[in-house]
Specification:
By secondary structure, the protein is of the alpha/beta class. The protein has 5 helices and 5 strands, in the order βααβαβαββα.
């Protein structure tokens, strides 16, 4: 079983960027922790980050046929990435949306997600461990046949 973990724009700056909202962990640290968790759960975790919506879409389209689920932090594309939303929907895979900060406690515009209506779930405000919670939930759902 393979789960895609996708990180959108500016997430390559985790550990440097606004630590009050995004914490101290770097993206390579988070990816390593998710790969370890995936190994413990018996699944392959394939990670990808880009600051470009088209590259995220290309990755989804290239990988969807060999994956069983997607965990994604779309970054700012959460609010306007309609072509990303279409690619996620067209993949036919279950999707869990992740946000490190609580998007519902920040600026009003951050609480609107164009991804949420096609996602199976959303994890928001748990810091980097929200990725781990989403990965666990995805594996549980897939093993239960949902």
């Amino acid at each position: 079983m393979k789960i895609l973990v996708i990180h959108g724009p500016n997430l390559n700056l985790l550990g440097q960027r606004d630590r009050a909202h995004y914490g101290d962990r770097t993206l390579p640290e988070i990816n390593a922790l998710l790969e370890e968790q995936g190994h413990a759960l018996g699944v392959e975790v394939a990670t990808f980050q880009s600051n470009h919506e088209g590259a995220l879409i290309d990755f989804i389209q290239q990988q969807a046929s060999t994956a069983q689920g997607i965990v994604i932090n779309p970054g700012a594309l959460t609010h306007y990435g309609l072509s990303l939303r279409d690619a996620l929907s067209d993949s036919g895979l279950p999707v869990i949306e992740v946000h490190i900060s609580n998007i519902h406690r920040r600026e009003e515009w951050r609480s609107r997600s164009v991804i949420a209506p096609i996602a199976d779930g959303q994890v928001s405000g748990l810091g980097w461990s929200g990725y781990a919670a989403a990965l666990q939930a995805m594996v549980d759902r897939l093993k239960a046949g949902k």
